[in-house]
Design a protein that fits this description.
0% strand; rod-shaped
Length: 124
Amino acid sequence: MTPGAWKLTGVGLALALLLALGGAGGGWLAACHYRPLIDTANTDLATAKQARGNLETLAGEQGRKLGELVLAGELRERNAALAIAKAKEDAQPDYVAANKLLRERAGGDPAVAAASIIDQELGL
């Protein structure tokens, strides 16, 4: 090899070494700068995932409780309807008797007639 070729090879190797050192130094500086930011972002990500999991659990539990409340409301509604029907059935004889007493009473003030009927029922 000629001395010019050796010189050109030396310069090329020096440039390659400088580029490698520059890349390594730049990588090290970037790592020193961005590592705390990346660590903070990873911590925030873990916290957000945990919070999301908690919220999903709470939403599922809330949905189950809401379903239970709806079922309990429907059960109360059915029980109330049964109680109303039973009360109407139980009150039917009294209603018939009250109508009978009202038919027996002829004329006069309705308030006086009602008071008279009540007194008669109470045995006064």
